[in-house]
Design goal:
3 domains; five-stranded antiparallel β-sheet; D-amino Acid Aminotransferase, Chain A, domain 1; Rossmann fold; alpha+beta; about 30% strand; 17 strands
Length: about 325
């Protein structure tokens, strides 16, 4: 039986108890021994020139895999170095949890996106931004859920906002061209499979996040849009992520960000898809070899609730 850890920090765990219980229930049904682990119960580092990781009051036994629901690239790298398979892996964590790095990396692969300027608040000089066409969107590179995202109408407002955030400890931003406000698309991915897409819209805020009062609906990707999503997917080995897009003035999709610790409330509200069952089906189908490496898995699902037959290859 596969043994895994579901890792959260304590504060996020308290807010997501129902999701954790759902995850553990699906794991049990899939025949996976999945344990909730609080990040605060882990101690890791180097001892006697060797990497180590200890869990409070537990035997020193590492799991076969970890589902990392905590944005901690260092911990992910450490687990991987100890031979534990981590979903999402440390490279996904590094790119997805920093908006500047995400745009920098994907631009090298010709992924369309809004014009984006990287800003270090302590190096900010107003004179360098006089040619910006306002309004623009200012985003903290580590922000989540629409927090630390601001609509900026003038150069003076941009300067004031950057200086204010620097005083409060936020120091890295992206400044982006405003495209269609109040509208974005989240595409849910498990492994290398597109599970579903949700359109999020708002009439009262330039941000379309459901948690900020936006509305959501299923969105059928066309062939061109599906191809763009696959271009991005093929650059990573993914566990479960959300890839977010905004829409250009011509209606085309533009990369916005990638959610490493993605929630699935809007997908559940708008469909019968059980994304955690799909995720656990993928994990249980992995072929584990003697050296704990992973080759591949082919999953066949006849019906998940009302979902039609799908045959997909999920590669980790």
């Amino acid at each position: 039986m596969l043994k895994g850890w579901l890792i959260y920090n304590q504060a996020d765990a308290e807010r997501n108890r129902a999701y954790i219980d759902w995850f553990l229930s699906e794991a049990e049904a899939a025949g996976v021994e999945l344990q909730f682990v609080s990040k605060e119960d882990l101690t890791f580092g180097v001892k006697n020139n060797l990497l180590y990781l200890k869990r409070s009051n537990e035997p020193d036994r590492l799991p076969d895999f970890c589902v990392m629901r905590n944005m901690d690239e260092l911990l992910s790298v450490h687990l991987e170095a100890l031979g534990v398979k981590v979903y999402n892996n440390s490279f996904v964590s590094q790119i997805a949890n920093d908006k500047a790095k995400a745009h920098q990396y994907l631009a090298k692969h010709n992924i369309p996106m809004p014009d984006t300027t990287f800003v270090q608040a302590d190096d900010y000089r107003e004179a360098n931004f006089t040619r910006l066409v306002f309004p623009v969107v200012l985003k903290a590179v580590k922000g989540r859920g629409g927090t630390e995202v601001f609509l900026i109408d003038s150069l003076e407002e941009l300067t004031a906002r950057v200086k204010l955030r620097l005083e409060r400890g936020s120091d890295s931003y992206v400044v982006q061209q405003l495209v269609q406000p109040g509208k974005d698309l989240r595409v849910f991915i498990v492994g290398q499979q597109i599970v579903g897409a949700i359109l999020r819209e708002s009439d009262r805020d330039f941000r379309a996040n459901f948690s900020l009062g936006g509305r959501s609906s299923l969105y059928p990707l066309n062939e061109v849009e599906t191809s763009l999503v696959r271009q991005i997917m093929d650059l990573f080995e993914l566990g479960m992520v959300g890839i977010d897009f905004v829409f250009g003035h011509d209606g085309s999709m533009l990369f916005n960000e990638m959610e490493d610790v993605v929630g699935s409330r809007t997908l559940s509200l708008n469909s019968d898809l059980n994304i955690l069952k799909i995720y656990l089906d993928a994990l249980t189908g992995i072929i584990w070899e003697d050296d704990n490496s992973v080759s591949r898995v082919v999953i066949e699902r006849k019906e998940i609730d009302k979902t039609p037959f799908i045959r997909c290859e999920v590669r980790f």
